[in-house]
Design a protein that fits this description.
With 353 residues, the chain is an alpha/beta fold. The chain contains 13 helices and 14 strands. Helix 7 runs parallel beside helix 10 and helix 11 runs parallel beside helix 12. The protein is elongated. The model has no long low-confidence stretch (mean pLDDT 92). The structure holds S-adenosyl-L-homocysteine and iron/sulfur cluster (SF4).
Length: 353
């Protein structure tokens, strides 16, 4: 039987497993302390845990299933990890130093099936979902890297914005969120976690119904159906009206603000006309939303979009501001390394071919 990562179990699941195998209930909390506070690398390092329990865990779970292949450190402190999964697949995780803390961007799938026309991840079809433990372990790797540097720094924020569509791997995503948010786990506050989706509408409702305070980001990228369907084929299944109704439901349920991501593609979606349409679209929820304007990262020779000019980016921004829309132009991290989404992984795959 294939062993799974211990990091994929919620504390309730670990408790059930241990109790049904004759262990005492309190062991689960002990094991979690070793995993998440002391951050051990071997089950046998758990000094106050009885031998039978250690053996039981060794027989059933892995503790270090990801292998660091490459670690690139940028001058601005961004660190990009290329990690190998047990089946040989490669994924990326990025650590970013922000003014407000240390933020990690995690991957949720190997490839992506949504196939947005501007995205390197979408070119490579999804080969599989990541297990919850494989997503948690990405953060553990980053935290252990910080432990090694020895400045007592903690991962404080998590963004689910790496390769993959998180809402297409919903069950594992939810386990992952519960594990990292738990006080005895990594204790990352719900308000410090953001999940980004291309807009799988039924899952936005399910996410809102979880009754957690986790932030939601919507990859909008176009203010009307014609243009959005052209660059994101998911819009044909879930058009903007349905997406906005789901977002409004999320806002009512959670009282959180929502972020709209908007990549600026030269001469495609970056005219003042589209900025005005976007402002009109968000008029009713202006106090409950932010727009993140993202300068496009040209990542692949098969994708012919260009980054908008500085002038168009500023004109777009000004139009939103004039309409009292909260918006920022996203600051870029790690421009001297392969920091754009999917870039390091696709480069490795190309070299391997
Ligand atoms: N699948 C989810 C989350 C991963 S993509 C989603 O689409 O929301 C994370 C963000 O990176 C999305 O907003 C996506 O549109 C953006 N992105 C993808 N390729 C990019 C590129 N080449 N340059 C800039 N942003 C990109
Ligand atoms: Fe998938 Fe997001 Fe890339 Fe679209 S932008 S192909 S949903 S990873």
């Amino acid at each position: 039987m294939k062993k799974t990562s211990i990091y994929g179990l919620t504390i309730e699941e670990l408790t059930d497993f241990l109790v049904s195998n004759g262990q005492k209930k309190f062991r689960a909390v002990q094991v979690w302390e070793w995993l998440y506070q002391k951050r051990i690398n071997h089950f046998s390092d758990m000094k106050n845990v009885n031998k039978e329990c250690v053996q039981l865990l060794e027989e059933n779970f892995t503790i270090n299933s990801l292998n660091v292949q490459i670690k690139q450190v940028s001058q601005d402190g961004t660190v990009k990890f290329l990690l190998q999964l047990p089946d040989g697949n490669l994924i990326e995780t990025v650590l970013m130093r922000q003014k407000y803390g240390l933020s990690v961007c995690v991957t949720t799938q190997v490839g992506c099936n949504i196939g947005c026309s501007f995205c390197a991840s979408g070119i490579l079809k999804k080969s599989r979902d990541l297990e919850a433990g494989e997503i948690v372990e990405q953060i553990m790797h980053v935290q252990k890297h910080l432990d090694e540097i020895g400045q007592d720094e903690r991962v404080s924020h998590v963004v689910v914005m790496g390769i993959g569509e998180p809402f297409d791997n919903f069950t594992n995503l939810v386990s992952f969120l519960r594990i990292i948010n738990h006080a005895k786990g990594l204790a990352i506050g719900a308000r410090h976690i953001t999940v980004s989706t291309s807009g799988i509408v039924p899952k936005i409702y399910e996410f809102a119904d979880l009754d957690v305070q986790i932030n939601l980001a919507i990859s909008l990228h176009a203010p009307n159906n014609e243009l959005r369907s052209q660059i994101m084929k998911i819009n044909r299944a879930f058009p903007i009206e349905k997406l906005m109704s789901a977002v409004k439901y999320y806002l009512e349920k959670t009282n959180r603000r929502v972020t709209f991501e908007y990549i600026l593609l030269q001469d495609v979606n970056d005219h003042v006309e589209e900025a005005q349409q976007l402002a009109n679209l968000l008029k009713d929820i202006r106090h409950l939303s932010y727009v993140n304007l993202i300068p496009y990262n040209p990542v692949n020779e098969h994708i012919h979009y260009k980054r908008s000019t500085k002038e168009s980016i500023l004109a777009f921004y000004d139009t939103l501001k004039k309409n009292n829309i909260n918006c920022v132009i996203r600051q870029e991290h790690g421009t001297d390394i392969d920091a754009a989404c999917g870039q390091l992984r696709s480069k490795q795959l190309k070299q391997a071919r």
